[in-house]
UniProtKB/TrEMBL annotation:
GO cellular component, as recorded: membrane
Record GO terms (molecular function): electron transfer activity; oxidoreductase activity
Domain Cytochrome b/b6 N-terminal region profile, residue spans: 23-253
GO BP, sorted A to Z: respiratory electron transport chain
Listed InterPro entries: Cyt_b/b6_N, Cytb/b6-like_sf, Di-haem_cyt_TM
Keyword tRNA-binding: no
Native organism: Candidatus Chryseopegocella kryptomonas
Protein name (database record): Cytochrome b(N-terminal)/b6/petB
Pfam family, one: Cytochrome_B
Amino acid sequence: MLAQIKKKIKSSEIYKSIFRHGYEDTQRNRALMVVDNVFLHLHPVRVSRHAVNYGYTWGMGGISFLLFIILTITGVILMFYYRPAAEYAYEDMKYLMNDVPFGALIRNMHRWSAHLMVITVMLHMFRVFLTGSYKPPRQFNWVIGVILLLLTFLLSFTGYLLPWDQLAIWAVTVGTNMARATPFLGHQGPFGPELGMRPDNDIRFLLLGGTQVGPPALLRFYVLHCIFLPLVTAIFLAVHFWRVRKDGGISGPVPKKI
């Protein structure tokens, strides 16, 4: 009875429109299973043995991407309860932590995932360096990885201000004060005064929207953290994954000479 039902389902037009071939274990069908699937086609048909060896790869790249997805989902949820205005931001965070069902869980998932992503991205870069995975033909992807590391730091830094408490305000004050010493772009940096940089037109003023941390800074950091930086990061992630595929997959150990 079950065999007849299974056969009838597999012979239906609906089933055939979704699954276009059988599951016989052949090299051709393995390739078709990957190529014909909207999710699996992002992955190669074959992978090297070392690519699934966690002792070699540490899995830090995949873990970092998983954390980025968690941050995206939890961040979108947090946006429903947060208003980027100085008079509401702190109270919205208190409301989220104390009154919203599972609000504390969502916020802490976002917070700890952000901390972990910084760690895992750094470990991923460290592993790539140790295994020489930045060498030809992967130099371009190494540069993309460095840019993604900087974007991770910027995402973490811009998100730090959003709770709008004393810790956030003074931490961002210290961080942005360092921007004053940026070469060429800061009014206290090398060649800055010669180029006409002042406290009201240098890179720190651009970041804060003023000469000190205030409501304009909160709004700018919110836009950077929730819109601009995630979009740029997603674009560079797509390029990064594409280059991994084009460069022959995850780099492996040097073959031993016989």
